Amino acid sequence: MDKRNPLVKNKRILQSSYIPEQLPHREEQIKEIVEIVAPSLTKDKPSNILIIGKTGTGKTAVVKYIGKELKKADDNEENCSFIYINCEVVDTPYGILYNIGNQIIKDETKSIPFTGWSLDRVFSELTKYVDKENKIYIIVLDEIDRSFQKNGDDIFYFLTTINEVLEQSKVSIIGISNNPKFTDFLDPKIKSRLGEEKIIFPPYNTVQLEDILKDRSEEAFEKGVLSPGVISYCAALSAQDMGDARRALDLLRIASDIAERNNDSIITEAHVKYAKNKIELDAVSEVVRTLTSQSKTVLMSIVINTENDNPTMNTGDVFATYKHISEILETSTLTQRRVAGLISELDMMGIIHARVKSFGRAGRTREIELGSKEVMDLIKSDVLFKKLKNYKNVKQTTLI
Ligand SMILES: Nc1ncnc2c1ncn2[C@@H]1O[C@H](COP(=O)(O)OP(=O)(O)OP(=O)(O)O)[C@@H](O)[C@H]1O
Ligand SMILES: [Mg+2]
Predict the structure, then answer these.
(1) What is the reported pTM?
(2) Residue 15, in any domain of the structure
(3) What is the pLDDT of residues 184-206, one digit of tens each?
(4) More exposed terminus of the chain, fewer Cβ within 10 Å: N or C?
(5) Which of 164, 182, 201 is the last residue of a domain?
(6) Alpha carbons 400 and 397: distance in angstroms, whole number
């Protein structure tokens, strides 16, 4: 480790949790949000805001940045408190209220216990505390759709109607989501309350991503370690994908890790290419790793057919192999229809390709193909198939 050639001055700056001082190309959105929340500094209730934008478009970074600025502008949080909750991390109504409560309640002996109270009791205790000081509470619910998916809209109902029972304080909600459709499923009343103001974060284009990377890399890297094309290459790759700044930063960070590990003195486009492959492989292995045993068995059947010189097989071929493996592993066997359903799922995940082929009157079938060689290696090394020996020829497959 000590022999490593340190190319990065400060690794933290390239992490996605780091909030930079400057957020280029979000000036407009920052201005809009600040105009809405600024009245809280004089104890006027801001409208609720819904922020919508694809992944990596700076939603979390912008809101956290504004929270920091609000705190600076408001001595001792006299007029307003900014409370941030990530609903992907804290994903139950109780957890959300517990977190809000304990950011508000300063007296530890009065804090809401981690479990044990009824939701009604938490609601009423929280309402009491919110109303103790005459203040504006801005509550950010990041990844708000996650909470809705799991728990429905009770919590939003509580948080958007709390103002009707408060006598002194007021609560404003900033909801953040990368799913523009999520509000369609909300109760219409809650939908209109949450979305009093709607702000869209568009994806970044190549030039904008370049600016973002330039700023971050000036802080993060020693001078001269980035070869000239690296930033534009990272930006171009990520703009092509989704205009995702997180992806662009990941590419740069992983490329620099690879360069450091190789003891190279500059980071080049070749390192970025490696980084891209690594990110893609990591994503595929995560998908394969988290498949159900049945789906893994179907995938293994496709691998076996591929290795047995049957690279374009149909559902029947896959099902025959699947049945055979299930017998050897002594696991339950699904019907051919269910297996066909799992094949469609694997296709949708992009792990395999399944094309429908028509034979006119003779009917239709699917031609199934493995997505990549990596998938093959991943599934073959899965512990589920440790018992399979010599799967190259499924007829000879035997137990160890
Ligand atoms: N305009 C910008 N300037 C500098 N860095 C940025 C900018 N926009 C985004 N980033 C950085 O890109 C990364 C991803 O941004 P952020 O976490 O805010 O995305 P997000 O929109 O919240 O995505 P998600 O929907 O996946 O949560 C962070 O490291 C953030 O600091
Ligand atoms: Mg976010």
Answers:
(1) 0.83
(2) no
(3) 888 999 999 999 999 999 999 99
(4) N
(5) 201
(6) 9
